[in-house]
TrEMBL record:
Source organism per UniProt: Drosophila albomicans
Lineage: Eukaryota, Metazoa, Ecdysozoa, Arthropoda, Hexapoda
Keyword Acetylation: no
Function: Component of the Mediator complex, a coactivator involved in the regulated transcription of nearly all RNA polymerase II-dependent genes. Mediator functions as a bridge to convey information from gene-specific regulatory proteins to the basal RNA polymerase II transcription machinery. Mediator is recruited to promoters by direct interactions with regulatory proteins and serves as a scaffold for the assembly of a functional preinitiation complex with RNA polymerase II and the general transcription factors.
Superkingdom in the source lineage: Eukaryota
Key words, A-Z: Activator, Nucleus, Transcription, Transcription regulation
Predominant localisation class: nucleus
Family, per entry: Belongs to the Mediator complex subunit 20 family.
The protein's name in its UniProt record: Mediator of RNA polymerase II transcription subunit 20
A GO CC term attached to the entry: mediator complex
Length: 255
């Protein structure tokens, strides 16, 4: 695998999610990309029962169709710190047996699914984000396979995004990769440039959780997309191309 970046796509006024995704799929195919199946990333959150005055903790369980044998989990202790782990599919059964301790927030279960394309060294996924069958937005995943460090290939990824999305993408690194303050082994704070790290599959999962959290916070509930989320991956159908797009969009998720 290479480096992956997620890009929310603005939904123009009066256009449906299905129409926009169909338009983007046609644009990719016209550039020479090939349709390479479907993809799915989902997230379910479990909340712990507070005990002895301890704050509630959240366990986010995610699945990525690129890694069908794995279950990804991110534990949020409520103090801004997260612990990430990777397990096999039996982890889902474990969570079901812990109902006395963790309660699933099924009303916030969220997923991104759609068509997967390959274009040279790039893998591009056009995701329709839905929560409780309500359409929430469009999330583009782009992977540049020959590179494993974002700082070496960000400009190439950015140019690719601008080329087929038809929007301006900020020169700054996406919010997930911005410089962070961490605690070193000596207990001292220091700046950490995440864009220079070796990219791992968990980084993709954490980016999805970041954007899913933003979509969950978004108060406006869009109507369900025509045809349902499962029909988004179909290439070649739908309405005519040509949409009006904003002149620019930031790399962060919706607030």
């Amino acid at each position: 695998m290479g480096v992956t970046v997620l890009q929310p796509y603005p939904l123009p006024e009066g256009k449906s999610g299905a129409h926009i995704i169909d338009h983007l799929a046609k644009r990719l195919l016209s550039l020479g990309a090939t349709h390479a199946g479907q993809f799915l990333v989902d997230c379910e959150t479990f909340i712990s029962t507070p005990q002895h005055g301890t704050p509630a903790r959240a366990v986010h369980v995610l699945h990525n169709s690129e890694y069908p044998a794995s279950t990804f989990s991110i534990i949020d202790n409520g103090n801004g710190k997260q612990v990430a782990l990777v397990a096999d599919s039996i982890f889902d059964l474990l969570m079901l047996k812990m109902t006395s301790t963790f309660t699933s927030k099924k009303q916030t279960k969220i997923e991104s699914r759609g068509a997967r394309f390959e274009y040279g060294d790039f893998v591009i996924k056009l995701g329709s984000v839905t929560m409780m069958e309500h359409f929430k937005g469009i999330l583009i995943e782009i992977e540049y396979r020959p590179c494993v460090t974002l700082s070496y290939c960000w400009e190439m990824i950015r140019e690719m995004l601008q080329g087929f999305l038809g929007i301006n993408v900020a020169k700054e690194y996406p919010t997930y990769f911005t410089t962070q303050t961490i605690m070193n082994a000596m207990g001292q704070q220091q700046l950490h440039a995440k864009q220079n790290d070796i990219y791992e599959p968990m980084d993709t999962v954490k980016q999805y959780l970041e954007h899913f959290t933003n979509y969950r916070k978004h108060v406006q509930i869009h109507g369900a997309m025509g045809g349902g989320a499962s029909s988004v991956g179909t290439v070649g159908g739908g309405g005519p191309g040509g949409v009006l797009l904003p002149s620019s969009v930031g790399m962060g998720g919706r607030s």
